Amino acid sequence: MADYEISEFLESYATALGPEPDGVIEEMGAQAREEGFPYVGPAVGGWLAMLARLTDAERVFEFGSGFGYSAYWFARELPADGGVVLTEIDADELDQAREYMRRGGLADRASFEHGDAIETVDDYEGPFDVVLVDCQKERYAEAFEAVRENVAPGGVVVADNVVAGGSIDAGDLRAYFEDGGAAGGADRSGMDGMTEGIADYLDAVAAADAFETALLPLGEGVAVSHREH
Q: What distance in Å separates the CA atoms of residue 105 and residue 96, rounded to the nearest whole number?
């Protein structure tokens, strides 16, 4: 089986085994596919829901929300008094997220912030049980540094696109980390900006003693960093 066939097989298999999407999630996915809008998809969405359950999440913060696909998966798992903070620089997309949340009966669990997520996070007191990083790849490390102290012990930081998306080169990233990453003095010359942004992020979480990171090889690659203390 070719590599791309294995990837598609695993994606469809994980989707079939994952939590059942509702009609709103299915509509959001259809919109993303029709518009060619990047989204995590139901296989990763099911894992986001599972991470919210495993951490008994009450508070979630997203760096980059688009029209709310990932936030919707999170919100379904939160208690009635829980909340997810959506951030988005595109006002139209944020309005769409607000409408999808309303239709799903989840609007009371969501806060909608228009603007720069890295500036917005300072307006919220932690701790957060789950944080999603899905903003500009070149700013992933900056996002992590802005929120790391406000992640609850036992909570997780989830970063999308650590394998693919845009111009990200997974081969360059694998070679870099096989050579030890920043801690091992590995060479990153030749990486483009997006790939280097992911390398910066993964170096940052690796250097953070309180966090342990593993790769979830679904969608476009998800790094899950668990705060241990």
A: 14
Q: Using alpha carbons, select from 145, 140, 154, 164 the residue that is nearest to residue 44.
A: 164
Angstrom distance (rounded) from CA 198 to CA 140: 7
Low-confidence ranges of the chain (pLDDT < 50): 1
Distances (CA, A) of 31 to 105, 150, 220: 19, 33, 19
Beta-carbon count within 10 A of 225 CB: 26
β-sheet bridge partners, residue 88: 114
Amino acid of residue 110? A
CA 43 to chain centre: 13
Tell me which amino acid residue 113 is: E
pTM metric for this prediction: 0.96
Residue that the structure tokens 């690659």 belong to: 221
Map tokens 């913060």 to a residue: 61
3-state secondary structure of 146: helix
DSSP state of 67: T
Q: 3-class SS at 216? A: strand
